[in-house]
C-alpha cells in the first residue's frame, strides 16, 4: 500500500517520465561529488582510499593483496541486491517507500553501498572499497539530506592465511583485524582521539559494531561494521568453512562536516565559489563561513490521517523552496478531544546559505507550500 501511495504521489504530482524519484534527486544523481577535484567529499574519500592502498593496515599481511576502490556502480539497484542478498528482513524500515526511493517495484536508489558487497565478492575481490552516493528519505535539519555519500570496505581471508582452526576461531581473528583496521583509519584521519566500540545490529554482519570517536567535545558515531554473516558469504559464492571476512560502511558527509567544520550538510551541494574555492586536494582545512544570513521562521499546521507520510512532507518542503530550508521541527501535536482528529504544527526555518532572503520572498514560498500541502498531500490546513 505504501509503494502504491508513493508512486501515486510522484507519478501524478512531482515525478516526470513515469519515475517516482523527484527531479531534484535526479539532479543530484548526476553530480558525483566524489569525482569533483578539490571538493571536501572527494578530498576525504581520497585520503581514505590512499590509506588503504598504501599503508600496512594491520598485522595480517597477505602477499599480493591490494585494496581496490570501485566507484562506478549505478546508484539504481535492484531490491534483491540491496536487501535480500544482504539479509535485510522483509519488514525492515529501510525497505519502506517512506524511507527509500523506489524507481519501480524492484528498483531502488541505493540507501547504502552494502548493496554492492555481493557482486564485488562474487567477482573474486578479497580487499576492496566501494564509494558512492546513497539516498534516503528523511527529515530536514543541518545533518540530514536525502543524498549523501558512503564508503564501504571489505576484507576476506581464507583460513590458511590467518591460521584459523575453525569457524569460531576465524571469526575472532577477523573481528580483531577489523578493529585494528578501523582504529588505524580513524587515528589516521582524526588524529589521536578517544574512541569506543558500541554493540550494533546489522542483518549482514555478526557480530555487528559501531565505532564512536570523541571529537569537537562530543561522542560521534562514525561507522558501522562487523564480521560478514556466513549466509552473506554463501550468497556471494564463498564457503564460510573456508573463508571469513569483515565489512564496514561509513558516511563521508558526517566525517567531512566535523573535519572541515562545515556547519550545514546542504553546503556540499553548493555551487558557490565562496564554498568550493576554499578546499584543496590532500588537505583537511577549516571552513570559513562566508555568510550568517538571518533565519526566518514560518509555522504551518494541518490535520493528519493514519497514513500520514512525514518524509513526504519534508520532501515537498525541499522541492518547494529549493534547499532554502535549514530545518523543520514539529513543535506541537494536538488531538481533538471530541473528533479524535490529530493535527501537527511544524516550524520551518528558512535560511539560504549563499544569500539573504527577504520576508516577502519567504512568504511567497510559504504560501505556495500551504497550497501544495492541500492539493498534493491532500491534507487539511488548520
Ligand atoms: N550499510 C550499513 C549502513 O548503511 C553500514 C555497514 C556496512 C554496517 C557494512 C556493517 C557492514 O548503516
From TrEMBL:
<keyword id="KW-0496">Mitochondrion</keyword>
<dbReference type="InterPro" id="IPR045864">
    <property type="entry name" value="aa-tRNA-synth_II/BPL/LPL"/>
</dbReference>
<feature type="domain" description="FDX-ACB">
    <location>
        <begin position="291"/>
        <end position="382"/>
    </location>
</feature>
<dbReference type="InterPro" id="IPR006195">
    <property type="entry name" value="aa-tRNA-synth_II"/>
</dbReference>
<dbReference type="GO" id="GO:0000049">
    <property type="term" value="F:tRNA binding"/>
</dbReference>
<keyword id="KW-0809">Transit peptide</keyword>
<keyword id="KW-0547">Nucleotide-binding</keyword>
<keyword id="KW-0067">ATP-binding</keyword>
<dbReference type="Pfam" id="PF03147">
    <property type="entry name" value="FDX-ACB"/>
</dbReference>
<dbReference type="InterPro" id="IPR005121">
    <property type="entry name" value="Fdx_antiC-bd"/>
</dbReference>
<dbReference type="GO" id="GO:0004826">
    <property type="term" value="F:phenylalanine-tRNA ligase activity"/>
</dbReference>
<dbReference type="GO" id="GO:0005524">
    <property type="term" value="F:ATP binding"/>
</dbReference>
<comment type="similarity">
    <text>Belongs to the class-II aminoacyl-tRNA synthetase family.</text>
</comment>
<dbReference type="GO" id="GO:0005759">
    <property type="term" value="C:mitochondrial matrix"/>
</dbReference>
<protein>
    <recommendedName>
        <fullName>phenylalanine--tRNA ligase</fullName>
        <ecNumber>6.1.1.20</ecNumber>
    </recommendedName>
</protein>
<dbReference type="Pfam" id="PF01409">
    <property type="entry name" value="tRNA-synt_2d"/>
</dbReference>
<keyword id="KW-0030">Aminoacyl-tRNA synthetase</keyword>
<keyword id="KW-0436">Ligase</keyword>
<feature type="domain" description="Aminoacyl-transfer RNA synthetases class-II family profile">
    <location>
        <begin position="104"/>
        <end position="289"/>
    </location>
</feature>
<dbReference type="InterPro" id="IPR036690">
    <property type="entry name" value="Fdx_antiC-bd_sf"/>
</dbReference>
<dbReference type="GO" id="GO:0006432">
    <property type="term" value="P:phenylalanyl-tRNA aminoacylation"/>
</dbReference>
<keyword id="KW-0648">Protein biosynthesis</keyword>
<dbReference type="InterPro" id="IPR002319">
    <property type="entry name" value="Phenylalanyl-tRNA_Synthase"/>
</dbReference>
